[in-house]
Amino acid sequence: MYFTQVSMADTTLVHGSARDRRACERKRRRVAEGSAVVLVPVLRNAAEAALGMDLPGSADGEVAGGGGSTASSVGTSDMVCALGESEEGRHPFVAAALATAADVPPEGVLPWPVGRQLVVVLDMDQTLVGDVTPLADRENFETNIPWESWPAGRARGVPDAVMSACLTAGVMRPGLRELVGVLRELGVLVVVYTHSEGAWARKLLRAVQREVGHFVYRVFARDDCLDGQCGLGWTSQKQLAHVAARLAETPGLEWVSVGSCILVDDRCDVLDLSEARRQVVVPPYRYTPTNVRWDDSIDDEVVATNSGKLMKEVVYRTAVGWGLAPPSLVAAGACDAAWHRRAAAEARTVKARNRLAASDVALFSVAAGLRHVQGDASDASVRVLKAFVDRRQLVPGPAPVYPSLGYSIPE
Ligand SMILES: [Mg+2]
Q1: Rounded distance from Cα 71 to ligand 1 centre (Å)
Q2: Distance from residue 124's CA to the centre of ligand 1 (Å)
Q3: Residues 216-274 pLDDT 10s
Q4: Which of 93, 152, 327, 368 minimizes the number of CB atoms within 10 Å of its CB?
């Protein structure tokens, strides 16, 4: 017996001709060279293009928390302020933070009135959050293994407190709270479209929304992808026509069509070429939690109260099959040297990526903080700081920034 469910985390699915793939890879590399903190200005440009209009904003906004080849000349804060204060009379970023609630409303509840006929379809993994594979693996083992016995009083699945700690420690993409504030001010419909397994995606998104406020109207998950139940006849992993058709079935959302959707995704090969123009590609955000393991809750009590057959033939065999545990766990005397070498290499990669992500978080925090600096513009320290985080300085991406900080850019 073998636990056959694939990992809940996103997987690679390549389609199209070799030439298409090469073009995608070139585009991806160009995007990946930019700072990870580009969601808001990129989204703003895409929203303008989709709506066929210029959204209000000033012409010389300062730091918007990122750049990239499609960066707008208008700063995030300028755009939000020009759109007016929220009904609470507070800065929209604050309003979004205040909207954070212990209980996130269920799917199908609008987080705010939809005032523009635009659907922002957001990818989840490496777009809204970093690489959550360790969390997803633990969730998978605890909730999908047919355990014969589980300790009384111990919930199965990653606890909310662990989810929250990971999200705030770096798993959440920097700027996500601000992005939610902007989406709210724009009054657009927001859905998430992910290749992750549905139950996991909904759990993770509930945790995210407990941190940044309610913003997801509906979740489309693996069952809505090519290799899910809806995949027959599809030529791509995701299909905006599917999302639009499902949404348009809802009373009040009959206006939704492919033409009113834009997809924000870190991968440029997920849509069929016929829909590719509706996509905004953003650099992948790759922070990976390092303090979560697949067997965090599988302690001596769990091992002792489940049969050796289940542990060896399902649990351990799955862990070894996924590369999470050394081969000797199921095959006595097996050589673990290659596994340890691979694990050490992966740990080094994760460490480098997390340092890169930490730089993005720090840069974004400085940029966000400077938006609220009311000090004398002639103050040299303020000028230097603003120059450092000026969007134009970030346009070339981390290339000139990270090496100077002693960081390498992994790939
Ligand atoms: Mg993704």
Answers
A1: 21
A2: 6
A3: 999 999 999 998 888 788 889 999 999 999 999 999 999 999 988 988 888 888 999 88
A4: 152
| C-alpha 125 – ligand 1 centre gap (Å) | 4
CATH 3.40.50 corresponds to the domain 18-54+75-281: yes
What are residue 129's DSSP bridge partners? 125, 172
Distance from the alpha carbon of residue 116 to the mean position of ligand 1, in angstroms = 26
Tokens of 354: 């997390």
Residue 158 to residue 388: CA distance in whole angstroms: 39
Q: What is the mean pLDDT of residues 373-388?
A: 52
CA of 126 to the centre of ligand 1 (A): 5
Instruction: Please report the pLDDT score of residue 360 as a whole number.
Output: 73
C-alpha of residue 123 to centroid of ligand 1, in Å: 6
Domain ranges for the chain, please list them.
18-54+75-281
Tell me how far the alpha carbon of residue 218 lies from the centroid of ligand 1, in angstroms.
17
**Residue of 400, 395, 398 lying closest to 411 (CA atoms):** 398
pLDDT at 344: 95
Q: What is the dihedral of CA 42, 46, 49, 50, to 10 degrees?
A: -170
Q: What does the pLDDT read at residue 64? A: 34
User: Structure pTM?
Assistant: 0.72
Q: CA 110, CA 21: separation in Å to the nearest integer?
A: 37
Buried b (16+ CB within 10 A) or exposed e, 351-373: eebbbbbbbbbebbeebbebbee
